[in-house]
Design brief:
The complex is a heterodimer of chains A (101) and B (215). Helices cover 64% and strands 21% of the residues of chain A. With 101 residues, chain A is of the alpha+beta class. A three-stranded antiparallel beta sheet of chain A has the order 1-3-2. In chain A, a hairpin with a 2-residue loop joins strand 2 (62-69) and strand 3. Classes of the chains: A alpha+beta (101), B mainly alpha (215). At the A-B interface, helix 3, strand 1, helix 4 and strand 3 of A face helix 1 and strand 1 of B. Strand 1 (30-34) of chain A pairs antiparallel with strand 1 (86-88) of chain B.
Chain lengths: 101, 215
């Protein structure tokens, strides 16, 4: 297999999924964001957003903190160091691939 | 295909779409304009003059704090309940960048001092120089954020500065006029963005009175 294709085959599939890629791209810029912000920015439904965040949390790429502000539930999402590293690696690898293509 | 760079830029833009940052900055410029205007009215060497000098230091030192408090207060009440809570990473400038900024500031300062030394009539050029410096800063910021209204403000800064110098109003009066007009333009730009934001994102029914606190 050519090196370029091998590189693409090794791409992180957790991040590569479009909705999760959008989520990690947003979280790479911010310190933390709540559920409403992520839903608005990605245009995902509540159910979809929850399941993608759960997948990212399961992989250790994000932390989800469920808290309250007064009586209002607040779900804060942060990219972990592992998530930031994986996103950076994905970004570089994909950029290299596109430049060669 | 997901355009990662576009998403990252859009995320940064989201911080400015409520116009609150411009309103806060514009108000600081208006205060500075008011200060410079006061220096043209108060006689030099008077007790009030000394108070004004102290006030200037206070404005400069507390500007960042005031802008921060303003944003915290209004984002909590206007933005977070509508479009969600988000905090951005605070990037500390690298030592290289700090040095570069200091060098550029020193060159500009020395250049202005040298020009003034050559001819006091250079005072007339101060609003134009201010306008061009603001235009460059706004242009760099607009490029980073990618919002059209910041490009317009950059052009506006240059036009206002050059216009005041062109009208023959220099020195403190010219500077005062520059900050007052440019400050008003920035506030108007922010207010227009805020109105558009409020129309686009009405407050969700039965939602929280306040969003979470900014950190």
């Amino acid at each position: 297999m050519p090196a370029d294709l091998r590189s693409l085959a090794e791409i992180d599939r957790v991040i590569h999924e479009p909705a999760r890629l959008a989520l990690t791209a947003i979280l790479s810029v911010v310190e933390s964001a709540d559920f409403l912000y992520l839903q608005r920015e990605t245009g995902l439904t509540k159910g979809n957003l929850s399941s993608h965040l759960a997948k990212l949390e399961e992989t250790g790429y994000v932390t989800i903190e469920k808290t309250y502000r007064g009586r209002i539930p607040l779900t804060l999402v942060r990219l972990t160091d592992a998530g930031a590293k994986a996103y950076k690696a994905y970004r570089e690898r994909f950029k290299r691939f596109l430049e060669k293509a | 295909m997901v355009d990662i760079e576009k998403i990252e830029k859009r995320t940064i833009q989201s911080f400015y779409e409520d116009g609150l940052t411009e309103i806060a900055m514009g108000l600081i410029f208006l205060i500075l304009g008011g200060y410079f205007f006061a220096t043209t009215v108060v006689p030099e060497g008077s007790a009030l003059g000394a108070v004004l000098t102290g006030l200037f230091v206070l404005i400069i030192v507390s500007a960042a704090f005031l802008v921060n408090r303003f944003l915290r207060f209004f984002k909590r009440r206007i933005t977070y309940p509508r479009t969600g809570y988000v905090t951005f990473k605070k990037k500390e400038p690298s030592p290289k960048r700090r040095v570069a900024t200091a060098v550029v500031a020193a060159i500009i300062g020395a250049g202005l001092a040298a020009l003034y030394g050559l001819s006091p009539s250079v005072k007339l050029l101060i609003p134009a120089i201010n306008g061009l410096l603001f235009a460059v800063a706004a242009l760099l910021f607009a490029n980073k954020v990618g919002l059209l209204r910041f490009y317009i403000l950059a052009a506006g800064a240059a036009v206002i500065g050059l216009g005041i110098t062109g009208a023959g109003i220099g020195d403190a009066k010219g500077i005062s006029l520059f900050y007052l007009v440019f400050g008003a333009a920035v506030v108007v730009s922010g207010a227009a963005a805020l109105i558009a934001y409020l129309r686009r994102f009405p407050r969700p029914a039965g939602d929280a009175a306040e969003g979470p606190d900014a950190r």
